[in-house]
Structure formats: C-alpha cells, structure tokens
Amino acid sequence: MTTGCKTTTVFVTVLCALLLTILGLVQEWPAWVWPVLAVLLIGIPAAAFKVASARRGPVPVVFEEQITAAPFERREQQVTRVALPSQWDDYDFQFSATVRWYPLDHGGDDRIVNPAGLAVEAVLDRARAITEQREPGRASLVQHELSGALSRMRPEGTGHLQVMAEDVTLVLREHDQERLDRLAEVRKDKAVWEHQRKYEQSKREYLGEDVLKDTGSAVVWWLAKNDDHVEKTVADLDLLARLTSAANDTEIPERLRDMLAQPSGERPVPFEREPTAADHFEAFINSMDLTDDDVRRFVAKQIAEVIRAQVPHATAEEMLRRYDPPADFTADDENEPTSTPPEDPDGAAGGTSGA
C-alpha cells in the first residue's frame, strides 16, 4: 500500500469514529456497544494494512535507490545561429535547432560530466556534413533536408548518448542573401542577352548568306514573302537589286541595269556610282554636239583601238559594247583619204610649162 492509500485509510477511519460517536450519543446506545465499536475502528484499518502489505511484498532495492537518486536531468539544449559552411567560400548558413538526447547503458566508470556538449557537437557534425555540399542559394531546401536527417536518434561518437534535433532553422545572413539575389539577376540578364545576340547573329547569317546572296535569291525570297505576287516582285526589282548590291558591297551587274526600268517604260533607273572612263567619253561626245550616229561610232571605235593598242583595259571593251560599231568599220578605214587634196597652183603651172 502506498503512502497516499495509508493516509486515506486513516482519515476515513477517524471520520467514521466521529460519526459513530455522535450517533451513539444521540441514540443512547448501551455501554457494552462502545468497547465493541472501538475494537472495530482499530481492527479494520490494521487488517487492511496487513492484507495490502502481504499482496505487495517487500520493498525492492531498486525502488529505494530511485528514491535516493539525483533529481531528473534536463535532456535538451537550444542551439541558435551557429555558422555552418556552404559549398561556396565565405557564404555560411546560420543554423538553429533544439538538440535532444538520452543516455545509453554504458558500463565503466567514465561518467559524462557535460552530456549537452556531446549532444550538440554530434548534431553540428551531422549538419555540417550536409551543408558544406550545398549551394547557399538553396537555404530553405537545405533546411528541410536537415530536418529529415536530424530527426532520427543516432549514437554520438563516444557511444554514451543517442542524439537528435528538431525545430531546425537554416538561413543566410541578410547581406549575403542580397548579394546572391543581385548575382542571380545578373546571370538572368546575361542569359537573355546571349539569346538575343545568337538570334541576331543567326538572322544576319540567314539574310547575308541565303536571302541576299545575290539578286536571284532575293527575288525568290521576296516572292515567298508576298504569296507569289509576281507583279509586286517585278515592281520591287530595283529595290531588291540595290539591297543585294549594298549587302555584298558590290556594284549592280551590267545585265540588270538595262532590265531595271521605270514602270512607264522610260530610261533605265539611274544608279548612284562612280563614273567610268566610258561615261566621261560619252559626256565628251555629247558636249561636241556630234549627232550623227555613224560619226559617234567611228570616233568611239578609233579611240577604243588606240586604248587597246597601248594597254589592255576594260574601258575599250565597254566603249565598243556601248556604241556597237558596225562590222565593216575597221581600223584601216582611218588610212583612206576623206577628200581629194587641192592642186598646187605652182606645181600645175610648172607642169604646163614643162610640158
């Protein structure tokens, strides 16, 4: 019987004795009842104590040792904002948690003086093994990983304690988080710029090496862009020729210059370019008011032959193509006399007199 049960039994016995005494005085019980009542009030509690002791047996030694043992030891420790390394240098995590432990049955006389220190050291070692392999930009994800890894009781290095941690919190310093945010923005901006640069480069290669490679390619591309509208493409030939010439840094081919005329059928479209020697010669012929086509062809041929005899030059070929002299017009024609020379009066007279 426990101490509480004994106290309750004595209190009930005293209360019953008082009630029976009051009742006996009121009812005027006979004198022989009082001795019997006293025996019952003393015997019943004594019998109850004896029966309880017989059922419980002797007090165990372990229970007596527990009564004299030291008071209960607190088995948790708060850890706040401990720096743990990350995968990047100089970017440390801030670790906080509640460390819990319980002692293991360890034989020997090596008594643990500071179990809290062992428990905290074991938890920090387990946490550091994870954080030093993680990037600092994933602090919230690493926090959940630590919560799972530290939630299981495991023995620490000496084998005296089983250790775990709960309420894990993992953050970065405020200025480190700001730096990471700025770095992330720069990386994203750089990625966008790289994509734009590659897009523009690809577009230039497509236009320069495919679409504007020559005028024919530009015409085919323009037909496809305008749903095979041939009339519009023909009207834009001048623009396409100029655009192709500018893209390749070349002059418009001679064969295309005669083709490119205004819609009204007037003179070919003038092109801005440096005048050639043939252009200067044509300006010279026009300034001399030589309107006879035969004379113009003759003069052009003579000068072209002189140029060709001195040094091979494209100007001679261009002049011949431009004026297209007739086939019977040869260089020997210039040796023929163009008129009968006048007679010498003196010679004629002399001849007469001589005759």
Task: Tell me about this structure.
Residues 315-325 have a biased composition (Basic and acidic residues). Keywords: Membrane, Transmembrane, Transmembrane helix. Residues 315-355 are annotated as: Disordered. The chain crosses the membrane at residues 7-26, 32-49. The structure is a single chain. The chain has 4 domains: 3-67; 76-172, Tetrahydropterin Synthase, Chain A (2-Layer Sandwich), CATH 3.30.479; 212-257, no CATH class; 277-335, no CATH class. It contains 14 helices and 4 strands. The chain has helices at 3-27, 33-56, 61-68, 115-131, 139-149, 174-211, 215-225, 230-235, 237-248, 254-257, 277-287, 293-310, 314-323, 345-354; strands at residues 76-85, 92-103, 154-155, 161-172. Helix 12 packs antiparallel against helix 13 (314-323).
